[in-house]
Structure formats: C-alpha cells, structure tokens
Amino acid sequence: MVDKQAITRDALRNRTAPSLLCERARSIPDRVAFRSKHLGIYRERSFRDYALLVARVARALAGIGLTKGERVAIMGDACEEWMICDLGSQSLGAIIYGIYPTASAAEVEYQLRDGGAVIFIAEDQEYVDKILPIIDRLPDLRAVIVIDDSAMFDYDHPKLMSYERLIGPAESDLDWLEAQVAQVSARDPALIVYTSGTTGHPKGALIAHGKHLAATANIVDHYPTFAEKQHRTVAYLPLCHILGRDIAVTLPLISRLVPHFGEDPEDLATTMFEVAPTVLFTVPRYLQKFAAQVVVGIANSSKLKRTSYEFAMRLARRHVRKCWDGTVTGADEAAYRACHTAVFRPILNKLGFDCLELVICGGAPLPPETMALWHMYGVNVLEIYGQTEEAGGIIAGQRGQFPRPGNVGTAPDGWDVRLSDDGEVLVRSPDLFESYWRNEDATRAVKNADGWFRTGDIGEWMAGGLRLIDRARDFIVTSGGKTISPSFIESVLRASPYISEAVVFGHGRKYLTALVEIDFDMVSDWARRNDIAYTGFTNLAEKPQVVRLIKDEIDRVNAELARVEQIKAFRILPKALDPEEEGEPVTPTRKIKRTQMYERFKPLVEAMYDDSEGRLLAGEVGDVLRA
Predict the structure, then answer these.
(1) Which distant-in-sequence residues (6+ apart) come within 8 Å of 186 by Cβ?
(2) What distance in Å separates the CA atoms of residue 236 and residue 239, rounded to the nearest whole number?
(3) Starting from the edge strand earliest in sequence, which strands make up the sheet with 143-146, in order?
(4) CB distance 358 to 383 below 8 Å
(5) Confidence check: pLDDT of 200 > 70
C-alpha cells in the first residue's frame, strides 16, 4: 500500500498524477491498476505495466518535440490509451485537455484554436474525419496521432501518424520517466477542462496538478470506502469531463478504485453485466434509461412476473419511506429482504447491478422519482453536486444508506459553502481552478478577492443539506409575477421513461409550455407493443397515439405540481436533438441552450401562446394534432 501520507490532501497539493503513478509502480507494482476489454477478453494492467506504458508514450511524444507548457488535445471515448497518453503528456509538463466525442466540427475547431493544441490525439477514424477539413486552418497543430487506424484507408496528410508506429521504437524506462516527472511542479498547470458552454463558447478552466489531486481527494474523504477496500467500477463517462477524469485517471491513483473499460462504448449494458461494479459513478440520464428499461421489461413480462413485481413494489414503497424516516424495524427489513431476494435481485443481476454498494450521481439534477425507484430496488443511490471549476472535487454530497431525495447533501470537510443574500451558492477552497484559459474577465466575474467562487446556482438549506433550486439566470417570471424554477419541472418531466428531454418556457407569459423530445427507444418499443406502425423518428413523434402518451405523462406530472407550475401546452420536437449538428441548441453533454432552443423552435413555442396555433402547427409540425 502507498504510504498514507501520500494520499492526504496537504501532501497531494505538492504532487502530480505522474509522480503518484511512479510511486505506485515502485511500492505496489503488481496491484491491478485497471482492466480493459480487448478482443473479448479483459486485460489486467498492474501499476508497473501502467507506468511503463506511460513512459513509452512520454518518450515518443518527447521525440516529436512536445515540451513543457504546450497543449495536447484528445478526442474519443473512454479507453486505456486516453489515460496513457494523458499521463504521458503530463509527465513532460504539457497541458492536456479533452474534446467531447459529440462536439460539432465548429466546436472542435474553436477548442483547438482556443487551447492552442500542438498535438491532437484521435481515438479512431471518426475523430480524424472531424479534424481533417479544418487542419490547414490550425497553424499551431503539428501532429494528429490516431490510436486505432484500422479503418483508415487512403488517408494521406503529412501531420497524420499512427499511435502504434509512433510508440513502437520508444523504450519503456521507469527511471527515465521519474526523471522527467521530477521536473514538473505541482503548481504547474496540468489540465484545461472546458465547460458546457450553454450561453456561448465554452470556457476552459485551467487546473494545476496539485490542486486537482487535492480537490479530487475530497471525494475519498467524503466516501471513505474508496480508501478502505478495493472497488470495481466502469469507466464510461467522457474523460474530457472532470468527473470522467476523476473516475478513470485520478481516483485510482489516490484510492483503491479499479476502473474497467468495455470494448464497445455503445454496448454499456454488456460491460455493466460483465464487470458487476461495486461502485458506480453516473449521471441522471443513465439512471433514468436503466430504470425505464426495467419498467418496460416488466410490462412485457408474464402475468406471474408482473404480479410478483407489483406486490414487491407495494412493500418497497412502504419500506423506502421508513428508511428515509429512520423508522425501519427488524420485521420490516426481513420482509423487504425476502422480496428483494425473490424479485429485485434477479432484475439487478440482469443489469449487472447486484453487487453495487454505492451509486454516486452528479452532473445534473437527479429527479427524486428516479432516485426513489432505485432505492426501492435496493440500490444505494446518492446525489453529489460539483462543477468543473472545483477542479475535480465536489461542493456537496449525500452520505449514508438510502438518503431522502431532494437535496445534494453536505459539504466535504475543508470546503466552505455558503449562500449569498440572493441565494447563490458560493464556494471557497484552496483547491479551486486557477482561471479561465485566456479569459481574465470571465475569471474575475466568478472569483472574488476573498477566494469565494460564484457557482451561478441558487440553493437553500434543507434539513441540514443543500437543495439546489435553479441556475441564477434561468428563473422564469410569469406575467402574473410568479417566479418559477424551470429546471425543477424539467427534471420531473424527464423522469418519464418516454421523455428524453423537456424544455419549459413561460417568461413574461400567462402560463408555462414545454417542448418535448421523446425517448425514441422507449416510445418505439411502446409503439410496437401497441401495433402502431411508424417509419422513423419524425413519423413516430407525429402519431396521435404518441401525442396522447406524452400528454398522459405530462398530466401525471401536473398533478404533483402547484397550479402555477403546471404545463398548459406542449409540443413534441419533430427530430432528435443532436449535439454534433451545427447550430443545435444542445451542448455535447446534452445541456440545453435555452435561448437557442427558443430561437430554433420559435414558431412551435409561439404557437402555444397564439390564437392561430392550429394554422401555425399545421405548417410547422404536420399532422401532430390529427386524430
């Protein structure tokens, strides 16, 4: 085991991730660092293997001229080569940053220009195709390294090079790597992590080596199980996201977390089943989709299974309320355990969730209904809250077993969190980001001289925990003067298995309306079960039966909302939102650009407030209202 002093926050402020890797390669060389699936088999990499691979890549990068302070951009899905290239670059003092796999060509060009990358590392042909049309407009870019070039035939550009051929002649020398790493200071910049950019171009948060490690350590402090015993997890969130980086790169160096990489990012279900993680980091969208699959699967099962499930759910609803209230008796627990073993455990086993001890959900608000459902299934889902600017740490997180939904918990030790006079969440820590890359004005707007960072989120304290209400700029004030949080309503709507995205409008209006993107997989499955023929997304969205289905879902949500919060009209989008499409009002992380959403679908929104809505809809969305 690594010396305990090496994982304290104070010690980490004086370290770099590559130095921790070298230390582990010396002190625990044979311990498993990660596993990745290749040609159907999971390969184990020890810390010594890991360090030698990083040394090999670092030497190869040094051979093509990469030096301290230069920037390296990576684009692709979570994979072991990303981690190796990442730490190899950091070992030379270069600054690393990732570009979201779903970024449009314009966003790729912007981030390459803004970050000034001299090397672009592409996972495969898909990402090479995004950069080749713009490569001659990027004078700083010296090389494009392709990890998997197996599908690249007749590609010819002087800056293109194969990852395998590049690292082929390079030596794996741990002593050489340690010598390089020793020249990198913990105070040097390590990362640029780009924010979502919902109101303009994304801003790059510049983060120093030591601050990133110390910030991420607040997760280990908040959840000591990571240091107490080994845990399996699946690394599938994008590594360009700060949480994805924490899971795959950083936490394994400061805790006992072992990440696993699947072979096909599109087949996450198979990876989950094969790995059977004990800990899972996720975002609400995945929990909602997995839960929807369970609910739809039960609906399609035999009458005996449905009856058993319904009986177990009645008991689970009573049990989970008692869990939240702290009033569970021994008899209650025994009855629930019997139902769990007979009904819920087989369901979780099919998902690969039967070994889960902890699920940590962040990145966006988690609908309380989704969290409650997983609690009923016996999965301990906790919600955390953090932002890119916290450098890998969290602002708050729920703790314990089956906490009540509705808040994001408490602040970690050593982090100060308070509310401003207008309710904005403010954070102070020695381990925040340094600044926004090449944007001092934006930095000054959120960091004051006292070290407090303005999150832009509005919150309140509730039962000792922090409850988030909305983004400061996102409140809707109706024409009647009522102030409403659209994100709360949108979150509740997205809890429906049939709704992928919902955007609420109503600022300065008499009532609220919503644009809805259907979940194509769930709705198409429903349509097939109900013998509804369709030819594609648009045709399915226009079906009167689908309109009624979504109306029923909205009516169900409205029944739980105050009258002023209820959705009075809605329209289904005629196409799926695609972040890779130029001008689309959604970021690569699927955060909605509300203003652009309105401009893009203005006729649909205005029609819901206009007396001539029937005529406008006929022109805009075809037969959506046809009986």
Answers:
(1) 13, 14, 15, 16, 208, 209, 210, 213
(2) 8
(3) 160-162, 143-146, 117-122, 71-75, 95-99, 189-194, 204-208, 435-436
(4) no
(5) no
